Amino acid sequence: xxxxxxxxxxxxxxxxxxxxxxxxxxxxxxxxxxxxxxxxxxxxxxxxxxxxxxxxxxxxxxxxxxxxxxxxxxxxxxxxxxxxxxxxxxxxxxxxxxxxxxxxxxxxxxxxxxxxxxxxxxxxxxxxxxxxxxxxxxxxxxxxxxxxxxxxxxxxxxxxxxxxxxxxxxxxxxxxxxxxxxxxxxxxxxxxxxxxxxxxxxxxxxxxxxxxxxxxxxxxxxxxxxxxxxxxxxxxxxxxxxxxxxxxxxxxxxxxxxxxxxxxxxxxxxxxxxxxxxxxxxxxxxxxxxxxxxxxxxxxxxxxxxxx
Length: 308
Description:
Elements: H1 3-15, H2 35-51, H3 55-68, H4 72-84, H5 88-101, H6 109-120, E1 124-129, E2 134-138, E3 141-142, E4 147-150, E5 153-161, E6 164-172, E7 177-181, E8 191-194, H7 213-246, H8 250-284
Parallel strand pairs: 1-7
Antiparallel strand pairs: 1-4, 2-3, 2-5, 5-6, 7-8
Helix pairs in contact: 1-7, 2-3, 3-4, 4-5, 5-6, 7-8
């Protein structure tokens, strides 16, 4: 088998693993006749803004699409755009919500957990509980979840309990969690700092082993680059061979041999790195149960899911 043909087979095998996951909007969200069309309009606007690196506009458009026709894809894209816009708190909250609504076999769950873990290390978390409490707010912003991501520092939690306003002040450090118990009357002990707590959504299960999926994705990226360089080298070698056949010269022969040697070396390195990447993915990475690794195609090398 010629080197050029082996290059084409290797490239085809690697490209076949990359795809944009396909999904359809939730039929239950289509109660309004124009909801789907309007949601798709905002979704496409979000994609266009994302490609222009206007991540805040992209996030708003994806969120609008999600509000019109709730679907994990729109929510994931909104979270991704918020993170790229530097809005870590909103991104972590949306990624967490994605894990709550996405199907158990959604292939983006692995990456989402890794993203949440990375964000959690930079943020604080408030675990709020209070039977009977209503109108719960953090820094005057209403919350609808028992676990709230916040920037590190001082925060004020308020709520209404038995027709009275309850206030708790709490300080939380990056990567830590504070438990806030909302009860009647002043109770300083209701706020319990849990410094250094492990990330809830992104940490591996107790007793599990394995490295982060990020190592696999990094190795796969290096493999992809090597495939491209090797393919170019193979094409260049074939071109030099044709030039030599058309006009044989000593200089052309020397250049052709050097190009062939370069291609052979690149081919060997590419195959080796590809096999190593596969080994990392199969034997070393701790994946979610029932979830397979995929490589998403996206603008500017990002992981934008461009379907609705």
